[in-house]
Amino acid sequence: MKIFKASCDFIGLNFNINNKAHKKLSINKELIEKLIKERNMARKNKDFKKADEIRKKLTEMNIEIEDSKNETLWKIK
Fold first, then answer.
1. How many structural domains compose the chain?
2. Residue 21 reports pLDDT greater than 50
3. What stretches of the chain adopt beta strand conformation (E)?
4. For residues 44, 46, 49 and 51, what is the CA-based torsion angle, rounded to 10 degrees?
5. Is residue 60 included in any domain, yes or no?
């Protein structure tokens, strides 16, 4: 299982293998990255309402984001 998870991490498909729901994962990496870019721009422009709306949309897509000083990381919940 470790090799499978490492392979998924390598291609950018991050998920919790202990998830009891075992949902089928259907992600659109380009859309997620586009939304994160839009959110970062909104934050830069101090449009926090828009940034919060984008975060909420990502959360509804089961995407968890984490802001660091230099970048925003994301993973599937």
1. 1
2. no
3. 63-67, 72-76
4. 10
5. yes
- Residue 20 counted as domain residue: no
> Is 21 a member of any domain?
no
Angle (CA) 67 28 32, round 5°: 20
Structure token digits, residue 18: 């202990």
Tell me the pLDDT of the chain averaged across its residues: 83
**pLDDT digit string (tens) for 33-55?**
999 999 999 999 999 999 999 99
Residue 8 CB-density burial (10 A; 0-12 exposed, 13-18 middle, 19+ buried): middle
Cross-strand partners of 73: 66
The rounded distance, in Å, linking the Cα atoms of 39 and 32 is 10
Residue 57's domain comprises: 26-77
Is there a contact between 74 and 32 (Cβ–Cβ < 8 Å)?
A: yes
Query: For the chain, what's the residue count?
Result: 77
Instruction: Let me know if residue 19 belongs to a domain.
Output: no
